[in-house]
């Protein structure tokens, strides 16, 4: 898709060069051309404040600079008019003829519509969810899943080579607690008097998991004997089975949400493959390790941090931070990702600066790492906060919410707010089939489009040669303009890493289409309306492509009927 802002930037650059060459403006130095969409649509399609940016170097009033730039704008098929507004804005209106032609361009591009080549194939890893495999994923994890998966899709559309990764925390104290808890629940299921560990996992899912393992055992009596007589051996075997089962549940729950990972990376592999040992040596060689109080410290204060951080405890066990350093070294130095984007829960906010300091200590530019933290989700039914599961009496799992309101509704609602804002998720609104439900509203627009195109097919109307120059109604042009915002939005989201803008755009596109539908009859049987019917069907077909692309980027379905 043609990048409109690039075309306009080039035209303004040529205008500045022509104005300088003719003597209308003095030498301007470095041009800073920023083009934005004005908040007030009556001001045109785009605006720039470049004249105000040039005022100091040109030693001239911004309004006068703007007038001279507009006077030197080259003729362009894309620009219909350019005007000046105080204190020095240049407002640009796109050519109607060019806008009309974009309908055919969108239809020609099909599923490739809105792709841009911002990334030039740069390798980007997006790591998200990465919940400890000690329990089921909940709705908070689901928010990270939707944000991460959608961001990955946006980055791919922007021309990046993207890998989705789940980091399996299968080493450390939390897993030991999980193994002890599973052993206790299995022993209890066999009638043994074994107490749960003080810091164990007490959810109903652990009881269910123990029962599942027993039910699937090839020799139940042999398993019971081992549990009773060889607890250490039994705990190790049960733990290995339990870990794989929890990962299978997590994988299934993520896939129910439409999220699939390219890589499931094991924390334990950092030890078996030697990365953990290597990063300790590298940090030590680079002068960022100190021994104090029997522990090994990363001297992050030498990199501007408030305090140093323990990486190996006095008992010789690594901290979570140490394995995270090894993991990120693996991402950058060993697997060669150009950029890494991590999505973490809000409880990891304090971990961000020290992680950046650590990769800097390893000789990696910290600007290559972006860490996004997502805030909490509050589940509600109307005004009532939902705190516990109806099914198990404890945590509300992501799967329960998906089963109740559907994948698409969960994805849309969790995507509708920026990651750094807390959000309420109303289960009742998510199930409503009315305009109050934004999911229903957006998908209904696509279904309505599909029904129009089916009607045209039933009537045998061939609109492939529809004359788009007939699309002159303001509602028609507004729909074209709105569709053309998608490539810009993809480029912007890939730059600022905020995929939630997609949900707002989807609603705007749906609203613009519904307005067009009310203003313009598409399939008309009146004599003489054949040409405008064909043109509008061509526009509707383009709108179907744009809306489906938006829904698919969000990981949602584009229904043909509702």
Task: Give an account of the 3D structure.
With 562 residues, the protein is of the alpha/beta class. Among the domains are: 4-94, Gyrase A, domain 2, CATH 3.30.1360.70; 100-118 and 435-553, Isoleucyl-tRNA Synthetase, Domain 1 (Orthogonal Bundle); 173-256, no CATH class. The protein has 21 helices and 15 strands. The chain has helices spanning 4-22, 50-58, 62-71, 96-109, 139-157, 173-189, 204-216, 220-229, 231-256, 269-272, 275-285, 320-334, 352-361, 398-405, 407-415, 427-431, 438-458, 474-483, 485-496, 501-519, 530-553, and strands spanning 35-36, 46-48, 79-85, 89-94, 123-127, 161-168, 263-266, 289-292, 295-298, 309-312, 339-345, 369-374, 377-381, 384-385, 423-426. The strands form 4 sheets. The protein has a 5-stranded parallel beta sheet, covered by helices on one side. β8 (289-292) and β9 form a beta hairpin. α8 (220-229) crosses α9 (231-256). The longest helix is centred in the middle third of the chain and has 26 residues, at 231-256. The radius of gyration is 29 Å and the shape is flat.
Q: List the strand order in the largest sheet.
A: 7-6-5-11-12
CATH superfamily of one domain: Isoleucyl-tRNA Synthetase, Domain 1
Q: Beta-strand level of the residues, as a percent range?
A: 5-15%
DSSP, total strands: 15
Q: Give Rg in angstroms.
A: 29 Å
Overall helicity: 40-55%
The number of helical segments is 21
């Amino acid at each position: 898709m043609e990048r409109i802002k690039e075309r306009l930037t080039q035209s303004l650059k040529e205008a500045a060069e022509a104005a300088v060459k003719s003597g209308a403006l003095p030498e301007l130095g470095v041009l800073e051309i920023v083009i934005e969409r004005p908040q007030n649509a009556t001001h045109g399609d785009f605006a720039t404040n470049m004249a105000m940016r040039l005022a100091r170097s040109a030693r001239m009033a911004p309004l006068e600079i703007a007038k001279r730039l507009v006077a030197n704008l080259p003729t362009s098929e894309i620009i219909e008019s350019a005007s000046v507004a105080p204190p020095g804005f240049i407002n640009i209106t796109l050519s109607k003829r060019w806008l009309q032609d974009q309908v055919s361009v969108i239809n020609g591009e099909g599923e490739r519509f809105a792709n841009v080549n911002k990334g030039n194939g740069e390798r980007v890893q997006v790591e998200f969810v990465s919940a400890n495999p000690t329990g089921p994923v909940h709705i908070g994890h689901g928010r990270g899943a939707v944000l991460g998966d959608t961001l990955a899709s946006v980055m791919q559309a922007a021309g990046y080579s993207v890998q989705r990764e789940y980091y399996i925390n299968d080493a450390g104290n939390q897993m030991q607690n999980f193994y002890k808890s599973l052993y206790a629940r299995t022993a209890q299921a066999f009638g043994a008097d074994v107490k749960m560990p003080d810091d164990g996992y007490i959810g109903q899912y652990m009881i269910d998991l123990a029962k599942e393992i027993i039910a699937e055992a090839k020799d139940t009596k042999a398993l019971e004997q081992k549990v009773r007589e060889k607890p250490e051996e039994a705990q190790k075997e049960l733990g290995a089975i339990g870990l794989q089962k929890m990962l299978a549940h997590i994988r299934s729950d993520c896939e129910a949400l439409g999220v699939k990972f390219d890589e499931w990376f094991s924390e334990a592999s950092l030890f078996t493959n030697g990365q953990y040992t290597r990063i300790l040596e590298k940090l030590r060689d680079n002068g960022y390790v100190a021994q104090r109080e029997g522990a090994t410290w990363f001297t992050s204060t030498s990199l501007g941090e408030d305090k140093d951080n323990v990486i190996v405890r006095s008992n010789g066990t690594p901290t979570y931070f140490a394995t995270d350093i090894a993991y990120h070294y693996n991402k950058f130095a060993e697997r060669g990702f150009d950029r890494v984007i991590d999505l973490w829960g809000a409880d990891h906010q304090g971990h961000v600066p020290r992680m950046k300091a650590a990769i800097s200590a390893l000789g990696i530019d910290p600007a290559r790492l972006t860490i996004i933290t997502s805030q909490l989700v509050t589940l509600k039914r109307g005004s009532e906060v939902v705190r516990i599961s109806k099914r198990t009496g404890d945590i509300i799992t992501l799967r329960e919410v998906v089963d109740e309101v559907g994948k698409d509704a969960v994805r849309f609602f969790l995507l509708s707010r920026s990651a750094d804002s807390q959000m309420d998720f109303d289960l009742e609104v998510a199930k409503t089939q009315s305009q109050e439900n934004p999911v229903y509203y957006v998908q209904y627009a696509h279904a309505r489009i599909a029904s129009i195109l089916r009607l045209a097919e039933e009537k045998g109307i061939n609109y492939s040669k529809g004359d788009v120059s007939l699309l002159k109604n303001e509602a028609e042009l507004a729909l074209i303009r709105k569709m053309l915002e998608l490539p810009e939005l993809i480029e912007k989201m890939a730059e600022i890493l905020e995929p939630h803008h997609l949900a707002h755009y989807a609603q705007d596109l749906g609203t613009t289409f519904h307005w067009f539908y009310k203003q313009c009859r598409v399939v008309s049987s009146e004599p003489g309306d054949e040409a405008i019917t064909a043109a509008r069907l061509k526009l509707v077909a383009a709108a179907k492509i744009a809306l489906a692309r938006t829904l698919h980027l969000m990981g949602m379905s584009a229904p043909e009927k509702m």
